[in-house]
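Bug report (template v2)

What were you trying to do?
Predict the complex of my protein with magnesium ion.

What happened?
Run completed; filing so the output is reviewed.

Input:
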Amino acid sequence: MAQLPHHVDDDLVWSEWRSPRRPAPALFLDRDGVIIEDTGHLHKVHDIEMIAGVEQVIAEANRRGVHVVVVTNQSGIGQGLFRWEDFAEVQGHILEVLAAAGAHIDAVLACPFTYHGDGPLVHADHPARKPNPGMLLKAAEALHVDLTRSWIVGDRATDMGAGRNAGIRGGLHVLTGAGPEERPLALAERRTGFDVHPVDSVAGALEMLVREF
Ligand SMILES: [Mg+2]
């Protein structure tokens, strides 16, 4: 078997720790449709288009001492549509763009499992694949995240579900990416103790950061 990139753990989840462990809440961010436009299994640097306002939101979370954690389902890897090396290149570019704007990501988790087809990464309901909370819980343990004060921003109902299943405070559902068709399902993830707030885009998280942190 080929050697895995060094960020891919034994659980086969990309788990990249970019900041030290420190007790604090987290802002969990989905990637495709939240940080960058979702072109469908995006894996080429020239397809990257940053979503307006994301740099300011991340920089504000940084200033307020909130961990910024990317949690992204990347089933294209499990389906053999692209490789971890492609993912790494795309991530490298996104992190550079953010760094140029003074914005820092504290951790990146990516789940390669898929329920389509066959192969080692096919799994009917992998615990790391959103709406399951595995990536959020793994980050919480590694970084010492206060889940009860944490939020997730996502364009799909499964992002909200992952937040709810992890026991965090709430989710912000955006209208970028798959947001418009997902909105009713996303709002249906509301429960007592788990808020789902509709916003236009990730830029709408600024208000939440100011209010909550
Ligand atoms: Mg998405």
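What did the reviewer find?
The first helix runs from residue 54 to 63. The beta strands are 14-17, 26-29, 67-73, 107-111, 151-154, 170-173, 195-198.
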